[in-house]
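Q: I'm writing up a methods section and want to include an example of the input and output format. Could you take the sequence below and give the corresponding predicted structure tokens, formatted cleanly so I can copy it straight into the document?
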Amino acid sequence: MNLLLTAAAAGGEASVGMSLVSLLIMIVPFGLLFYFMLVRPQKKEQKRFNEMMSGLEVGDVIVTTGGFYGVVIDISEEDVIVEFGNNKNCRIPMRKTAIAQVEKAEQQ
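A: Here is the clean output for your methods example:
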């Protein structure tokens, strides 16, 4: 009787080990899927945004996240002052994170 209990316990440990391996086999692909579908594209977008902001200069035409077009007239660490409209009187300070697109000023 004791021999049967020992054999059953040994078989139970093996099945626990196998279930742990099968659990890892299921988790690893989901982890990779999570990385390639969420983390990696976010890093790529952050890199693109940082490159765009490092190349931002006075005179560049920008498009805000709200869809407004304007011309950069001053740049600070985290903010820019943007001039909107043709009358040159509408100057608005805004965060750099509100910039969606930058079009370089034409060299004359």
